[in-house]
Amino acid sequence: MKLFGFVISALVVLSVFGNNCCCAEKVRYDNHTVYKVLIENENQLTIVKHLSTLAKGYNLWKPFHGIGSDAHIMVSPKMKNAFDSLMELNGFEKEILVENVQSLIDEESSSFERDATFGWTSYHGLDKIYAWIDEIIEENSDLITPFTIGKSYEGRDIRGIKISAKEGNPGIFIETNVHAREWITSATVTYFINELLNSDRAEIKNLRENIDWYIIPVYNVDGFVYSHEKDRMWRKTRQPVKGSDCIGADANRNFDSHWMENGGALSDPCAETFAGPKPFSEPEAQALADFVTKIEDKINIYLSFHSYGQYLLCPYGHSATDFPSNYEDLLAIGKSAADAIKKPYGTQFTYGSTGSVLYVASGTSVDWMFNERNIKVGWTFEFRDKGRYGFVLPATHIKPNAKEAVEGVIALVQKSSDLGYLKNKRVN
Ligand SMILES: [Zn+2]
Question: What pLDDT is attached to residue 24?
């Protein structure tokens, strides 16, 4: 353990020098490598936990849920030797997922906003997405009502649209891109909106005519803009944290439902899953909670789009051993969605409760809606892939991923309806 202590101290000291460049320039990820490491014992778990809180030189891509799980960790070139030694000394099994993150980012940048008009062969920034939202609002004024849930820390409007063909429909809320670097999520939801508005397919017409949709295409607007302009790997909000040099919190750990319980978030402001100094410290989380509270009785299903890992996750997030009373129904819904997602391209999604299937995550929006707002069907989608590209999923995946998501949502809604969750007047 002495040696372990020494290596950890060395990592802390080295990490100061393992910093990415800062300030005005874009952060570069030349020769940053993403490793998948298997956690097989307590000692290894302690080490990975520690690495995940080091802001400099390390970045956790996929969190872990204890012994038997794996973590995906991006390591800067300056930290690679120390990382390799640490892995070897402690008997870690590891493999490389992404050799050089910057080369993926360069490829992505070369096709950025390539579409002459708004489309789904390249990724788009916030301005372009909002301009497209304005266009569809104008073209579909009979169907779409715009709304704003509030302002982000940096003062941007957090915009949404309601798509409603008639009075009295049950409602589904979709919130997307709370984690800034998960660009595939807003690309997918805009595709989904386009299908809802224009498709002649009977299943989609049914969704258009008989459901009210409340959709926020980019929820963490500040983080999203920052991920485009400064740091492609940015995840959190952009509100400074008192007493720390690290910025932002994980808005999806900031909701006041089992906040910070069971290790499902971290109190270290430099961690990617920093829960914030207190529940609803982030204006974005507070704004969403306030908005949904006002329309709670109109919402039957709550969906949150994320990447990556190919999971469908329902409550609870705060516990790996505690399950909601309607868990059997939720599993039936999850199975329907996973089966449907698999149909177009054979892509496999794993479904089940967040805590038992992926990792304990407390204070998430889906859990808050479920526990505090009586929205009894709540799902987190973790889209493509399983780590080959991770957050920098090539734009060629947008359409296939979106098509799978459309199939998944159709099946999820159908099964929820079959099980009685789309009744207009929900009984409390
Ligand atoms: Zn996410």
Answer: 64
How many A from CA of 382 to the centre of ligand 1? 7
Is the Cα torsion angle 392, 66, 79, 55 positive or negative in sign?
positive
Q: Are the CB atoms for 356 and 311 separated by under 8 Å?
A: no
How high is the pLDDT of residue 175? Answer: 98
pLDDT at 3: 46
CATH number belonging to domain 15-108 = 3.30.70.340
Planar angle of CA 219, 223, 141, nearest 5 degrees: 35
Q: Per-residue pLDDT averaged across 201-223, rounded?
A: 98
**Across 49-58, 182-191, 255-264, 416-425, least confident range:** 49-58
Residue 66 contacts by C-beta under 8 Å, 6 or more apart in sequence?
A: 39, 45, 359
How many Cβ atoms are within 10 Å of 147's Cβ, its own excluded?
15
Look-up: residue for tokens 């819904």?
333
Beta bridge mates, 380: 304, 313
Mean pLDDT of 182-193: 98
Total residues belonging to the chain: 428
382: annotated active-site residue: yes
364, 252 Cβ separation under 8 angstroms: yes
Where are any strands of DSSP class E within 138-221? 144-151, 157-163, 171-176, 212-216
d(Cα 305, Cα 405) in Å, to the nearest integer?
10
Angle between helices 283-295 and 365-372 (to 10 degrees): 40
Nearest to 330 by CA among 305, 313, 342: 313
* 248 CA to centre of ligand 1 in angstroms: 15
- CATH 3.30.70.340 maps onto the chain at 15-108
User: According to CATH, what is the number of the domain 114-418?
Assistant: 3.40.630.10
Q: Which of 36, 29, 37 is nearest to 101 (CA)?
A: 29
The owner of tokens 């409340």 is: 214
251 C-alpha to center of ligand 1: Å?
10
* CA–CA distance, 379 with 402 (Å, rounded to integer): 16
Q: Which of 108, 175, 182, 382 is catalytic?
A: 382
Residue 11's Cα: distance from chain center in Å? 29
